[in-house]
Fold this sequence. Notes:
With about 150 residues, this protein is of the alpha+beta class. The chain is built from three helices and six strands, in the order βααβββββα.
Amino acid sequence: MTKSASRDIVVEEVLPHPVNTVWRTLTTGELIGRWLMPNDFEPVVGKQFTFQTKPMGKWDGIVHCQVLEVIPHERLVYNWKGGSDDNAAYGSPLDSVVTWTLTPVDGGTRLRLVHSGFRSPENDFAFDAMSGGWSKVMRSISRVAGER
Length: 148
């Protein structure tokens, strides 16, 4: 049996907002719903929460997550699990980790996302779709952070 390779999505941008504003945008459930998906997120280690997206095939569209690490204004980590064994492409099982790192820089905040743990070839479809998706999400985070 061949061992699956693991791939990561990495997106990094400097957002023209202070760290505390970006942090609030990443950790407030209502704001997350505006840049990603409806959720019941709270920035508490151990908190289990879900994201809800469009169902696909036998997958109900629910992403099951748990907060793994919270370092206010610096780092947020949660696992990201979803999919169904009956789906071959989009909606196939995915067990991964999302890590957000915030660094203050001149003119704003460097926000780095690492979404790790995509198994290849099983998760190649999700990897390809989410690679572009996370870049769009980064722009949406900046837009939501800029709204007062």
